[in-house]
Amino acid sequence: MVGGTLAPHVPWQAMVYIADSVLDGGYAGGALISERWILTAGRNLFVRKSRLDVQGKDPVIPKVYLGITARPDPNASKEVAVEKVVLHPGFQNRSDWDNDLALIQLKEPVVVSDKVIPIPLPESGQDLADTVGGSGVLTGWGWGILLTPATSLKYLVLPLVNHSDCKAEYKGSELTPAVDDDMFCTGPTKYGENVCFGDAGGALAVTDAETGDIYAAGILSYDKSCNSYKYGVYMKISSYLPWIHSVIRGDTEKSSALRSDAMSKMQP
């Protein structure tokens, strides 16, 4: 991130790692959402990330690290083994940024501790319009102002911005997202600090104004704002809850029909 402040320990933050070098796939963020699942941006699982390059290719199985803050920290003791990755079925179906989500299943449940704690997903009734300060907190190891990666985890408190402003800003450019209702955006801080390359996949953590509950409102997808563009663009998690729950439940193509069949035999 361009600017930002050194983060404290953020127990839901994951590092999704393919390689040190961006040219070889790089590394980015993810969010631990249960003891066996991490939510990240789908693009983080490919070496070359454009729709043209991704078509027909399988995602890479990344290394995943939990409980780390300093970037040189990743080591075998902080690595958690990956069982499989699940891309959203609509990933990049029309553009580079469509349905930019993936779930990573871990081989073993993580041991929840002071250092490693999942972040909740939105509950029904929790709305982005009702967050404390109209803002959220993003953490990441993304590039800074000199386009070099952060050596330690940083955070930014970013304002949520008007959907139509964000949509208008990026309209008509092939290099930026076509902002739809399954996305939302944050702007820069008053000091011009913003998300940058490598922050994608991190969760925008918000606090519900009514209950005080903290939850992940979005997963950062478009992290190329840096100094060039105004807005970071996120996948709006509330829009994707049916898919997330279905994957975590282990649903197959038959599950829905089998449930319906069982119910039909019991209902008058």
TrEMBL record:
The entry's keywords: Disulfide bond, Glycoprotein, Secreted, Signal
Gene Ontology MF: a single term: serine-type endopeptidase activity
Domain Peptidase S1: start-end pairs: 1-249
Short name of any one Pfam family annotated for the protein: Trypsin
Annotated Gene Ontology cellular component terms: extracellular region
Gene3D superfamilies documented for this protein: Trypsin-like serine proteases (2.40.10.10)
Cell location: Secreted
Single biological process term from Gene Ontology: proteolysis
InterPro entries: Peptidase_S1_PA, Peptidase_S1_PA_chymotrypsin, Peptidase_S1A, Ser/Thr_Proteases_Immune/Dev, Trypsin_dom
Keyword Transferase annotated: no
Similarity section: Belongs to the peptidase S1 family. CLIP subfamily.
Protein name per its UniProtKB record: Peptidase S1 domain-containing protein
Organism this protein belongs to: Perca fluviatilis
